[in-house]
Design goal:
Blueprint (H helix, E strand, L loop, with lengths): L32 E3 L1 H8 L4 H10 L4 H14 L16 H19 L8 H16 L16 H13 L9 H11 L12 H5 L3 H15 L5 H14 L1 H6 L7 H14 L2 H33 L3 H12 L11 E2 L2 E2 H4 L15 H9 L15 H4 L13 H15 L15 H13 L5 E3 L7 H9 L8 H15 L2 H4 L15 H17 L11 H15 L18 H13 L9 H11 L23 H11 L6 H13 L4 H12 L5 H9 L6 H20 L1 H22 L1 H9 L16 H8 L1
Parallel strand pairs: 1-4
Antiparallel strand pairs: 2-3
Helix pairs in contact: 1-3, 2-9, 3-9, 3-19, 4-13, 5-7, 5-9, 5-13, 9-19, 10-12, 10-13, 14-18, 20-27, 21-27, 21-32, 25-31, 28-31, 28-32, 29-30, 31-32
């Protein structure tokens, strides 16, 4: 997509308020959300709660998923305040803290009655609660992003996020600790992203719907920052899962309260109202869910043995098919009784469980087999070698054996089936809200950015411009493909060497060390002459656009449901370092603004529309920053490419270029904090450059162990084109030689097609 650059139509003057530290923004301005007609049509299909939960969890890259998230948020927190109760005039921290503390005391009384630790009722409760237990904190996954950094409140939240993520070590993270607590109680579940997770958790629709709200908030946190703060405080201060699992609080209440105080000090009336509405909603949802858990326990405790058997049969009968052959119960074949209604049987009545159980207990299948062990055909079929071996879990099999024994003793109680309707009324209410959700701030339009500046604005504010996602994916992919030309010519790079080599851990480390020493370290000599201030500042302005989005290429990696590889935690640790680990003084975006201020450069924040009109930074390198923002929006699709890009950009932080810039800036009295930070943190001894190589080795080793050696080659090709894509922008003099016909570098058995001069220019510029 080529755009005209350096147009004067944008530049009516410097009519903007310069951004200055600290960033005390409490919410982004209200903006519409733009979606394409295709996304509108895709999101129009209704999804049952479980399917919606999985879509929001597993799909973090599509327009349709973001549109669904917007509709979910409108259903739970309507813009018109339809669900709000009470006044928000006294939205102070003490009032909120008191409300939450009272709710916690109330919930503690209920959770304490939900079965003793290790008991079956307790396991039932924990299994049902598990989706929400393991989701806790997901709303912070994407709160740190180019549009929100370096906000004071965002960095406080990010510090909490870092704690919840185990400081980058997933084994110390909240999700892992919660899972261990569940397993200690005998509740074993697959990964939350597994297709059968909700089924294994036996999650009721209400549980899935509550989870959908938290997941939706995690997809649009920049636009719902007041709501994020409110949910975050209320959910963790309530500590429902701490109470249920008898574990320490995930975050100290004092830290949560301090964060709440800080936010309310910066918030205006509307932000306070929105925060309080989110707090009240969270209290409502947690009360609703805990009450439902208590009703569920009560319902199960009141089940007769026959009702328990009926529940088991109703769960397995739809999957029985015609596998029972000629087995009869009463006057009917089991294959007929259990047949699920097909498309041509729309009106086929459901299985009459009471009648079926009455017939079954009088059938020969439950008569004592004479083995002396209380067996019968029915229970014998569940033993090893029997036709029903492995069908029922241990608890189900024990229930069925107990029932068979009671039948053989002559017990014939009246069969009354107690259907499981717990939570259905509440779920129906939320489902109805979802069905009628039609947020008025949704606009249907195709994305047509007029130039690089507008495209950059849309990518920074991607929550409001999801219709730009297809353009971003296409642009990123094209760059990766075109960058493969450096597989042939990369050796001529001044700071990189993207020539192809066959992967092995040793070969990767050797290439990285060779680049480090031969291209970044050994060429360094102190400058004998320092350019004048204007020249130094002009060169610096070509870097500032990418400095203002520092770390962006990593900010969407390792989110809930996408964070199970060791490399995910390692990447998150690097991103956390870039953001100062929640410490604003060390945040690299903060450092960039310090440098800008020391150089006398005034700019709006990159999230502001006014940034499209700025005249301090040249247009020449918008393409470089845009490529970072494009690829980072697809952390699943471009995972391998991001790993390679990460190696290239982290290595570039060391050596000659950085040292020369520090020398020049110091000479002219300009702050060197940004350059100095990268010179140290990106070192190849133990810093980000070395970590970036380690991450690639870790990821490809995981691929080898799970998919085999053959899969490594394909993954490695994509990793290395990610490295080449960084060089493609950086090594402009070499690209000019390539396009002019003077092609340096090595040869390749199957060189990729070379881009035209126009293609190279478009991507570089």
């Amino acid at each position: 997509m080529a755009f005209a650059q350096n147009t004067d139509a944008h530049r009516p003057g410097r009519a903007f308020v310069p951004f200055v530290l600290p960033d005390t923004i409490a919410s982004l301005p209200r903006r519409p959300f733009e979606f394409s007609p295709a996304a509108r049509d895709e999101a129009a299909a209704s999804l049952e709660p479980g399917a919606l939960f999985q879509r929001l969890l597993r799909d973090q890259e599509s327009e349709a998923s973001l549109l669904l998230a917007r509709r979910v948020l409108e259903a739970f927190l309507p813009t018109d305040g339809h669900h709000e109760n009470g006044s928000y005039e006294d939205t102070d921290a003490e009032t909120i803290a008191t409300q939450v503390a009272e709710a916690r005391a109330e919930l503690a009384g209920t959770t304490g009655s939900l079965g003793a630790p290790g008991s079956e009722p307790r396991r039932t409760v924990l299994r049902q609660r598990a989706p929400l237990t393991l989701l806790g904190g997901c709303w912070l996954d994407n709160v740190s992003q180019p549009a929100t950094q370096p906000s004071v409140i965002v960095n406080r939240l990010f510090a909490h996020h870092l704690t919840l993520r185990g400081d980058g070590n997933t084994k110390r993270g909240l999700a892992h600790l919660r899972r261990r607590a569940l397993e200690n109680e005998g509740v074993y579940l697959p990964s939350i992203a597994a297709v059968d997770f909700l089924d294994k958790a036996r999650a009721r629709p209400l549980t899935a719907l509550h989870g959908c709200f938290y997941l939706a908030l995690s997809r649009l946190p920049a636009n719902f920052l007041p709501e994020v703060v409110g949910v975050h405080y209320a959910f963790h201060a309530l500590g429902t899962d701490d109470l249920l699992t008898d574990t320490p609080p995930a975050l100290p209440v004092a830290e949560l309260r301090d964060t709440l105080d800080t936010y309310l000090d910066m918030a205006g009336p509307d932000e306070r109202r929105r925060l309080h509405a989110a707090v009240r909603l969270t209290l409502e949802l947690e009360r609703e869910h805990v009450t439902t858990l208590a009703e569920f326990v009560s319902w199960r405790a009141g089940l007769t043995l026959e009702s328990k058997v009926a529940e088991i049969i109703s769960r397995h009968a739809p999957l029985a098919g015609s596998q029972h052959g000629g087995v009869r119960v009463g006057d009917s074949l089991l294959s007929d009784l259990f047949r699920s209604p097909g498309p041509s049987q729309g009106g086929t009545p459901a299985l009459d469980l009471a009648a079926f159980l009455a017939d079954l207990r009088e059938s020969r299948h439950l008569r004592a087999s004479g083995s002396g062990e209380g067996g019968c055909r029915f229970t014998d079929a569940m033993k090893f070698g029997g036709p029903m071996f492995g069908i029922f879990d241990e608890r189900e099999a024990a229930t069925l054996r107990a029932w068979a024994a009671s039948v053989q003793l002559g017990e014939r109680p009246r069969i009354e089936i107690s259907p499981d309707t717990v939570g259905e009324e509440q779920a129906a209410r939320w489902s109805a809200a979802l069905a009628r959700s039609a947020p008025t701030d949704v606009v249907v339009a195709e994305a047509e950015p007029r130039d690089h500046r507008e495209l950059f604005h849309r990518l920074v504010n991607i929550e409001n411009f999801p219709n730009t996602l297809p353009l971003a994916a296409e642009r990123a992919e094209r760059c990766f493909e075109d960058a493969e030309i450096l597989f042939v010519h990369g050796a001529g790079g001044r700071y990189t060497d993207a020539t192809w080599f066959d992967y092995s851990p040793q070969a990767l480390y050797e290439r990285a060390e060779c680049v480090y020493w031969e291209k970044l370290i050994q060429p360094y000599q102190p400058l004998q002459e320092i350019p004048d201030r204007d020249e130094v500042l002009f060169r610096q302005t070509t870097y500032y656009l990418t400095y203002l989005i520092d770390g962006a290429w990593l900010h969407r990696l390792g989110h809930l449901g996408h964070d199970e590889r060791e490399s995910d935690g390692m990447l998150f640790s690097i991103y956390a370092d870039e953001m100062g680990n929640g410490d604003l003084r060390k945040n690299h975006i903060t450092l960039t603004h310090r440098v800008l201020a020391s150089a006398g450069i005034e700019l709006p924040h990159i999230r502001d529309e006014a940034f499209m009109e700025q005249d301090e930074l040249p247009d020449d390198l918008y393409g470089f920053a845009i490529q970072q923002l494009c690829m980072c929006l697809f952390p699943d699709r471009f995972y391998n490419e991001i790993l390679g890009y990460n190696l290239a950009i982290e290595m570039f932080g060391s050596g000659e270029m950085r040292l020369h810039e520090i020398q020049k800036l110091r000479h002219h009295g300009i702050d060197t904090c940004y350059e100095q930070a990268h010179l140290t943190i990106d070192n190849f001894s133990a810093g980000h450059a070395k970590q970036a190589a380690d991450i690639i080795v870790s990821h490809l080793d995981h691929v080898r162990r799970t998919l085999g050696d053959a899969a490594v080659a394909a993954e490695w090709h994509r990793v290395w084109r990610g490295y080449a894509s960084f060089a493609y922008f950086l090594e402009q003099p070499m690209l000019e030689k390539i396009t002019s016909g003077a092609e340096p570098g090595a040869t390749s058995p199957s060189p990729p097609a070379e881009p035209t001069t126009d293609a190279v220019t478009e991507l570089v510029i």
